[in-house]
Amino acid sequence: xxxxxxxxxxxxxxxxxxxxxxxxxxxxxxxxxxxxxxxxxxxxxxxxxxxxxxxxxxxxxxxxxxxxxxxxxxxxxxxxxxxxxxxxxxxxxxxxxxxxxxxxxxxxxxxxxxxxxxxxxxxxxxxxxxxxxxxxxxxxxxxxxxxxxxxxxxxxxxxxx
Length: 161
Description:
This protein has helices spanning 14-24, 45-62, 79-94, 113-127, 152-160, and strands spanning 27-32, 39-43, 68-73, 98-104, 131-140, 143-150. The chain is an alpha+beta fold. The protein has two domains: 14-62, Ubiquitin-like (UB roll) (Roll), CATH 3.10.20.80; 68-160, Translation initiation factor 3 (IF-3), C-terminal domain (Translation Initiation Factor IF3, 2-Layer Sandwich), CATH 3.30.110.10. It is rod-shaped.
């Protein structure tokens, strides 16, 4: 059995442990039931639960949630549209989200996969200062895609703000 200040009291029966905890106005809580003999601690259980909830809340708050944003292009996407979508993807990356860039082929456009590949390579080149390539160019049916993740430089900039 462990006292409320952290000092060891020794081995007690359950009845004696409960009596000792009751005398101090605290609770007897089993900490390690699998140990031989089981370890119990004399603490204020309400305060213990409150502190545990606070720790869990802080952990949830510090947890980083990363979303996968998708940018869709076509092999004949114009320069202005490309720049516009590039700007949006850079914003997504700076926020800490992953970006999936997809070139969609319709009908006979599938014969011009090299244009899609060129478009994706240009996209990678333009975002290389804020991102890293997670998955290389791959063809999935009528779609060609890549996945970009924020670089470590981008994450450090976000933490500074």
